[in-house]
Write a structure and sequence with these properties.
941 residues; alpha+beta; Nuclear Transport Factor 2, Chain: A; Glucose Oxidase, domain 1; six-stranded antiparallel β-sheet; 21 helices; 21% strand; disordered N terminus; Peptidase_M36; zymogen; zinc; metal-binding
């Protein structure tokens, strides 16, 4: 996983310096930029309650400024500057139309900043700041640290990699906002060698203490495991059937397939999500759109200038045709490779299409992902989807000037040399995916991993009739892989001497039966260490410490069984090996565990052997690929392409990045004939679930059907049942965007050409990208809503404002909602107040569905058909209690509820008991001070 040398960081730094100093700006840009800054200064000071002085807005740093041809707007992004230093999290923006008129501006500038700022003279040198940051981030000490680009501390100094970073290390002196004060800090950017983090860290310029950090790498690791566990508790796990076709000599050799053609790729095509939904088909390279990929997708395309890629893709001189191009380089990044690991110039880690550019490779899942044919097929699919994502998103406004990913920017606008490095079967972990988005001019990196095929993992038990058989198991994220050290041998139930269940929880060491455990497979029950967890839960009761204690007692492997006596709670446990675990471990369900425990307690001798099923290759889960690419979109568009720190994903924030990424994934995999009320899931292929059943990696399905997904803004917060973790919060944001997408489709139709401007799906996607450009840095949900409304106003003359308001009001983000607290520019989940009202003058709409039924913010009733219970919910304002009535088709009242507050009807709805009603069609009528509304429902017995 070696980094490629790049000078992009230097170019980005030079651009930042030029923009920060108006005298260095290009002549043709100087006048509109000066006008924009003058307008921003005047409007910011005049804003009510801003208390900004002329000095506060006198000389902001311009991080980026560009003209958006798709909207006719110029977007200029700013950071406050005090004493000649940028203030890290004090951001602003000014957006102007073609005439130079300000159409929108925002800021998070600190009032009277000069008084809040300490001296701009640091106590630590830039070299000392790098060492302090490395120590705080738990990285090795820098070795041979040396300056490679000199500059003023305020503008930035660049150091070499110093043995701790993949990239050269930029360091810059600045202020950090902490409440109403400013702290002098060094900002140090380090790309970890293991590629798991790309830190942008701020250390105190006097003490070296780490004060703040953000990570350019957005990882899915935590949510994948948490949500799989939660979903499997709620429903039975049904694994996807695995292919059982016999291996062929052709596949074993990784030879060409039989369906390909010259100048083509054999892939799962857009919009199909995985091999579960579509066979692989031949896609010609001519599918590369000439407007968005004029040099084609692949280096051998005749449209690319001769010798164009030679300086980056050295394999061109060998005549090889690999999965590399202007938009993406896709390759194998498994750590077992002996050469070319993570190097886009290597000739050994990407499939070769040969002189005819025929990228057709055999795919047989039963052979496992490391089979040469399967590996080549997966990388080819990853290459194709990244190129399609590039073209589709560029057609909607994620283009060169706004910071997209390309080796060469054809227009000369924006910064190039930042194609996506798409790494397949990454060897740095499992059951994960991530995307790193440094600023424009530095490559994005997508890491796709292998996923445990839990449904095909088999633990074979022999020795007692009551226990013999095969059992499902899940692997863990720490310790050696089962392929290196097997879980095999005699099974021994531990006795720690302190915990319940005769000490089976492994809470203390040494074990009472340490002699019996030594040399065998330790059998341990999950949880059960309250006397230890009170003191230190993470150190004592979690999975990894139990395994370590078994290792200390001489065990060769560990099997942990769940404390819940069910068959569904099968979890791929996370955890970082920080305690020297050298033995393998697996996890089985409680039902299976209790069965084996009973056999052992009866005196039987049991022998076990764990066999892994063929892994799933994340490069074939096109929804996850799209999700990861989506992080690059939202991070480059929000706050401008030169600021990748505007979607900080700290727990407790209203962090919406995961929501945009889920939306992009759902959008790219929407097929003709789909409807909004259908349940959609994320990562069913990676999780081994049937596509239509789930659960995938999210807590609830995405659907416009409120009975299946009832998320509202009030879901955010702290306490039982509330969401504050970034992925959970993102689910709520994606839900409302998904609702909006379907309302656009029902209004404007569905367009199969994803590059078109026609169709509600294309219009919705463009609106979302336009909104990202307009919203504030570190937005909250209502900031995001307002940005969509503003984008619709500026580009569509507010043609869809009523629709947008109704959709958001239905999910509790209406006119009377309140976003809550902002701390240091970060919107928190604390203080959120949901509201369901529409603004004055906006009428309640009967939101459409494909079959004409109402999924209305005006009135909805579900489930429909109902059996014993019907929920009636309406986003209707009323100055008096509302009356809910259920009538038969003759107009006779069969059920009545009186004196229901409007807020109750908006938030939770009213539950009606329909258990006594006969099968038939009924009418729900809701009477408010604003009028009477009704809808039909059916009751079935």
């Amino acid at each position: 996983m070696t980094a490629i040398p790049t000078n992009s960081g230097y170019r980005a730094l030079a651009l930042a310096i030029a923009l920060a100093v108006p005298g260095l700006a290009l002549a043709q840009e100087a006048t509109p930029l000066a006008q924009a800054l003058a307008s921003f200064s005047a409007k910011a000071q005049a804003q009510p309650k801003s208390h900004l002085t002329a000095a506060d807005v006198a000389s902001p740093t311009v991080t980026s400024s560009y003209f958006d041809a798709g909207t006719g707007l110029t977007h200029t992004y700013l950071q406050q500057r005090v004493n000649g230093l940028t203030v890290f999290n004090a951001n602003g923006a000014v957006h102007t139309d073609r005439s130079g008129k300000v159409v929108f501006f925002n800021h998070e500038f600190l009032a009277d900043a000069a008084a809040a700022a300490p001296s701009a003279t640091p106590g630590l040198s830039a070299e000392q700041a790098v060492a302090a940051a490395a120590k705080a981030l738990e990285l090795p000490r820098p070795v041979g640290l040396a300056r490679v680009v000199e500059g003023r501390a305020a503008d930035g100094i660049v150091f070499n990699k110093a043995g701790i970073s993949e990239e050269n290390i930029p360091v810059r002196l600045m202020y950090l906002r902490e409440g109403d004060k400013l702290v002098l800090v060094w900002n140090v950017t380090i790309a970890q060698l293991d590629q798991q983090h790309h830190w942008n860290a701020r250390v105190d310029a006097h003490t070296g203490r780490l004060l703040d950090r953000n990570d350019y790498v957005v990882s899915e690791l935590a949510t994948f495991r948490q949500h799989v566990a939660a979903a499997q508790k709620r429903r039975a796990f049904v694994p996807t059937a695995q292919a059982t076709a016999p291996a062929t000599a052709q596949a074993a050799k990784g030879a060409k397939g039989t369906t390909g053609a010259a100048n083509s790729l054999t892939v799962i095509p857009v919009p199909f999500e995985s091999p579960d939904l579509s066979p692989r088909v031949v896609v010609p390279f001519s599918a590369a759109n000439p407007l968005y990929s004029p040099y084609g997708w692949q280096v051998g395309d005749s449209r690319a200038p001769s010798g164009f890629f030679a300086d980056t893709y050295s394999f061109l001189s060998t005549g090889k045709q690999l999965t590399r191009g202007n938009n993406v380089a896709a390759y194998d990044d498994n750590v077992t490779l002996t050469s070319g690991n993570g190097n886009v110039s290597s000739t050994t880690n990407s499939p070769d299409g040969g002189p005819t550019r025929d990228f057709d490779f055999p795919f047989n899942p039963a052979l496992g992902p490391r089979d040469p044919g399967n590996l080549a097929a997966g990388i080819t699919n990853l290459f194709y989807w990244n190129n399609m994502l590039h073209d589709v998103m560029m057609s909607k406004g994620f283009n060169e000037v706004s910071g997209n990913f390309q080796y060469k920017n054809i227009t000369g606008q924006g910064l190039g040399n930042d194609f996506v490095r798409a790494e397949s079967q990454d060897g740095s972990g499992r059951n994960n995916a991530n995307f790193s988005t440094p600023v424009d001019g530095s490559p994005g990196r997508m890491q796709m991993y292998l996923f445990d095929n839990t449904g095909a993992n088999t633990l074979t038990v022999t020795g007692a009739a009551s226990a013999n058989g095969g059992y499902r198991f899940a692997t863990v994220a720490f310790g050696p892989r089962l392929t290196k050290k097997p879980v095999a041998g005699r099974l021994v139930l531990v006795n720690d001497g302190v915990s319940a269940d005769n000490g089976a929880h492994g809470c203390a060491s040494p074990f009472v039966n340490a002699a019996a455990v030594a040399g065998n497979v330790a059998f341990i029950q999950r949880g059960g260490c309250p006397q230890l967890t009170t003191l230190n839960p993470r150190a004592n009761n979690t999975f990894a410490p139990k395994v370590k204690r078994a290792q200390d007692n001489g065990a060769t492997a560990v099997i942990v069984f769940d404390s819940l006596g069910t068959t569904t709670n099968l979890v791929n446990f996370g955890g970082t090996d920080t305690v020297g675990i050298r033995i393998p471990a697996i996890f089985i369900s409680g039902a299976d565990g209790f069965r084996l425990r009973a056999a052992l307690q009866a005196g039987n001798v049991l022998n076990v052997n764990a066999t892994l099923g063929p892994d799933f290759d994340g490069s074939f889960d096109n929804g996850v690929v799209s999700h990861e690419f989506g992080h690059g979109i939202s991070n480059r568009l929000t706050g401008g392409p030169a600021n990748s720190s505007c979607l900080n994903s700290a727990t407790g924030n209203q962090t919406m990045g995961e929501g945009w990424s889920d939306f992009f994934a759902l959008w790219m995999t929407t097929r003709p004939g789909d409807i909004g009320s259908t349940n959609r899931y994320m990562a069913t292929y990676d999780n081994g679930n049937p596509y239509a059943v789930g659960p995938g990696f999210r807590a609830k399905p995405y659907t416009t059907n409120f009975s299946a997904n009832n998320y509202t803004y009030g879901q955010l917060g702290t306490g039982t049942g509330k969401y504050q973790e970034t992925h959970d919060v993102g689910e709520v944001w994606a839900t409302v965007l998904w609702d909006l997408n379907w309302q656009f489709i029902y209004r404007y139709g569905y367009e199969t050409d994803f590059l078109s401007t026609n169709g509600g799906n294309n219009k919705a996607l463009k609106l979302v990208l336009d909104g990202c450009k307009l919203q504030v840095c570190n937005p909250g949900f209502l900031d995001g809503r307002d940005a969509l409304l503003r984008a619709d106003s500026l580009t569509n003359r507010a043609a869809n404002a009523d629709l947008i308001w109704n959709v958001f009001a239905r999910r509790g983000m209406g006119y009377d909602a309140r976003q809550g607290d902002r701390v240091n520019g970060q919107p928190k989940v604390t203080g959120v107040v949901q509201g369901f009202n529409l603004p004055p003058g906006v009428r309640a709409l009967a939101l459409a569905s494909k079959n004409g039924a109402v999924v209305s913010s005006a009135l909805e009733a579900y489930p429909n058909p109902a059996q014993n219970q019907l929920t009636v919910r309406a986003q209707l304002a009323s100055t008096a209690p509302v009356q809910v009535t259920l009538l038969d088709l003759l107009g006779k009242t069969v059920l009545r509820t009186v004196s229901v507050p409007a807020a109750q009807l908006q938030q939770n709805g009213v539950e009606l008991n329909t258990g006594t009603l006969a099968t038939g069609i009924y009418v729900v009528r809701v009477t408010t001070t604003e009028g009477t509304f009704s809808t039909k429902v059916s009751v079935q017995r």
